[in-house]
Write a structure and sequence with these properties.
132 residues
């Protein structure tokens, strides 16, 4: 992401009244968020989950490096920041996916999600000591 576009990711207070609406979360710029995510994985996940999660984070940030649409950038950063907060607070364990997010997924994303589900189920049937 271009350095000039990361400025678009900062929240605005224009048109909002502090008495009517809660203040929006301040979005982290891409590089500090990336580091925070890797740090959260290192501190809160076991080795297998960390390896998988780190690889996924790296590939997603690389894939979105040249995105220029500010709406996509803000959405990307917002979702990853919420994920970081969940991992740091261990609130992600046993949580179900939001149906609104599933409805917004593309066919490719749904396919990836299904493949991930199958891999997890296969791993559960084989036992914790086997390789996927």
């Amino acid at each position: 992401m271009r350095p000039t576009l990361r400025l678009l990711a900062s929240p605005s207070t224009l048109g909002s009244s502090p008495t009517l609406h809660p203040a929006p979360l301040a979005l982290l710029p891409p590089i500090p968020l990336y580091r925070r995510l890797l740090r959260a994985h290192r501190q809160h996940l076991d080795h297998e989950k960390r390896v998988l999660g780190d690889a996924y984070i790296k590939s997603e940030f690389r894939a979105h490096r040249n995105v220029e649409n500010p709406i996509h950038i803000v959405g990307f950063l917002k979702e990853w920041q919420m994920y970081a907060q969940q991992v740091e607070g261990d609130s992600w364990r046993g949580e179900r996916l939001d149906t609104e997010k599933i409805d917004k997924m593309s066919d490719q994303q749904l396919g990836q999600l299904y493949e991930l589900m199958q891999a997890i189920q296969k791993k559960g049937r084989e036992g914790p000591d086997s390789e996927v």
